[in-house]
Design a protein that fits this description.
single chain, mainly alpha, 2 strands
Length: 200
């Protein structure tokens, strides 16, 4: 389970909240790619290691295997049919507590992830710059060109990450306004259609 997948799962947990995790089913796949012993060892690690699924399983999330059969898919769906709807943390934060999007646990998790990426890529740029200086000093022109290209790509990615971070709040506000306009438009349309009748 790579770092990006772990961050995605952490974000998923923040969106759902601990109460709703009992309605979550974690489905593992690709069982045909490993031996039974290797698969069992990996699943034990996912279940018992706090870096992976243990925190969710401790909150009554379920874990099961999908073995590429219709029967297996039906078994997984049956697990969901036993669930009762629970509001997600993100819903309660935005609707009940009227929090600004950036104050929600999910947004803070996204921001932590973005800041971590900024730090990582800033350090990478610093390292590339030092390597370029050394390549220039030794007059290794091929290495200089390659490092300049790597530096350009890393810098472009860093700019993109910072832009995403800055646009997080404005995008949310824009979507909120659009949803509000659509809702208002639907209400007005319904009112117009109701007012078209003649009462005798």
């Amino acid at each position: 389970m790579a770092g990006a997948l772990k961050r995605s799962f952490d974000l998923f947990r923040k969106l759902c909240g601990d109460d709703a995790l009992k309605n979550v089913v974690i489905v593992t796949t690709m069982w045909s790619k490993v031996t039974s012993e290797e698969g069992n060892a990996r699943q034990r690690e996912l279940e018992n290691d706090s870096r992976f699924f243990k925190p969710a399983l401790d909150r009554n999330a379920a874990i099961t295997r999908y073995d590429n059969t219709r029967a297996s898919a039906h078994d997984i769906l049956r697990m969901f049919l036993r669930n009762h709807p629970i509001p997600l943390t993100i819903q309660r934060e935005l609707v009940d507590y009227r929090k600004h999007f950036l104050e929600t646990e999910a947004a803070q998790e996204v921001n932590r992830g973005l800041q971590s990426l900024v730090q990582k890529h800033t350090a990478e740029l610093k390292s590339l710059k030092a390597e370029m200086e050394e390549a220039k000093r030794t007059k290794d022109l091929k290495a200089v060109r390659e490092l300049q290209e790597e530096h350009r790509k890393a810098n472009a990615l860093l700019i993109k990450i910072r832009t995403v971070s800055r646009n997080l709040a404005p995008d949310y506000h824009r979507q909120q306004l659009e949803a509000s306009r659509k809702f208002s438009g639907n209400v007005e349309d319904e009112a117009e259609s109701c007012c078209g009748c003649i009462v005798g």
